[in-house]
Specification:
With 371 residues, the protein is of the alpha/beta class. It has ten helices and 28 strands.
Length: 371
């Protein structure tokens, strides 16, 4: 795996996630009580033996920088290589406006790409919850002699208007690529994770920069389906995508299923995160906690049912929390009742407040709010 370099796109801030991405980009969104979304793809890279990873950011990435630090928690703090954060002003000749697509982002860090030491590159988005055997993907890439190997899933969960789908021929080659269709009529959904050679990537970046092409899928792959050997790798495990507030809620609730947890947190490929060293959670003598994931450092004296609590959450006596996701530092005062609620960090719910959403339309409360 020393011949594979990792690139993570971490500049996307999906407006469909509303209050959840207002203070941060999607990759730094807390998930599962103690993780950030970027932990999953970054851990996938590290678990496969990748030692050099470039993270492409653009704006609203302060919380991402705080979380990743030097990369020590992922064993990426190294004198040579390791973790590199690639901001838009570091290598780009122009710093105006957002990246229009991932080829635009790659052109902005062309100097970094030219200095990659490895022969192959894996590119992916940092806002997926997936435990991917990257070593197997590279092995398939080499076995098939593909120009580009793309990771797909047979489980269609995303909104077609924000997703890509592929059709595969009998000899295992991608013959059609549908981008943001009105309906999902193909068998496989692309996760937009690709492996290709460094030289092919550099050639594509040069071509796209010269022809003002900014999308890898629409501008590079779609027009070259006949000339490029594009091969799918079908991942059979769990995949969580986050394209709306309800998506975030449903994927969070998925974690209450032991089968999903066993797949996503496979001990053979552990998901790493920033070490917080919190104390154990305290449960009061009358506390109730059923079917919930509760992180370290919480203080629970009320009732928690079918919910996910991040570090440092306080549920006072007489408070009830059900079917909810409470992020770090949330305080639920005595007598308050929450159902189908997502609270961002450091939210305070005052005494006797009743907040109720719905499974298809959960109530999202902005960071640092007092209700």
């Amino acid at each position: 795996m020393n011949d594979l370099h990792g690139i993570l796109f971490a500049y996307r801030s999906d407006s469909n996630l509303g209050e959840l991405t207002r203070p941060r980009n999607t990759c730094s969104l807390p998930f599962g009580g103690r993780y950030r979304l970027i932990d999953f793809m970054l851990s996938n890279y590290v678990n496969s033996g990748i030692t050099d990873v470039g993270v492409i950011v653009h704006e609203s990435y302060q919380s991402l920088l705080d979380h990743l630090g030097s990369g020590k928690d992922w064993d990426l703090s190294r004198k040579h290589g390791g973790l590199r954060i690639l901001p838009p002003f570091g290598y780009a000749e122009r710093g105006d406006g957002d990246y229009r697509g991932n080829m635009d982002a790659l052109a902005g860090v062309a100097g970094y790409l030219n200095n990659i030491r490895q022969e192959y590159v894996i590119m992916g988005w940092g806002d997926l919850a997936v435990n991917l055997p990257v070593a197997e993907v590279l092995e398939r890439h080499l076995e098939t002699g593909a120009d580009v190997t793309m990771v797909c899933t047979p489980t269609l969960k995303s909104s077609p208007r924000f997703s890509e789908y592929v059709e595969v021929s009998g000899d295992g080659r991608v013959t059609d690529l549908s981008i943001h269709p009105t309906a999902a009529d193909k068998a496989l959904e692309s996760l937009e994770i690709y492996i290709l050679s460094k030289q092919l990537l550099l050639d594509m970046v040069d071509y796209c920069a010269a022809h003002d092409v900014h999308s890898f899928s629409r501008g590079v792959l779609q027009p070259r389906l006949k000339s490029l050997r594009l091969v799918p790798y079908v991942h059979q495990g769990y995949v969580g995508r986050f394209q709306s507030v309800s998506d975030y809620f449903r994927r969070s609730m998925d974690l209450l299923d032991p089968a999903v947890r066993d797949d996503l947190f496979n001990p053979d490929r552990p998901i790493r995160t920033k070490d917080q060293s919190n104390p154990s959670t305290y449960y009061g003598p009358n506390a109730v906690s059923n079917s919930s994931l509760v992180a370290d450092g919480c203080f629970i004296e009320g009732e928690v049912t079918n919910s996910i609590l991040s570090r440092g959450v306080i549920v006072e006596a007489g408070a009830k929390v059900s079917n909810s996701v409470l992020m770090q530092g949330t305080v639920v005062k005595a007598g308050a009742s929450l159902s189908y609620v997502i609270s961002d960090k450091n939210v305070q719910i005052n005494e006797n407040r009743i907040l109720t959403g719905h499974s298809t339309y959960p109530l999202a409360i902005a960071k640092n709010s007092i209700v």
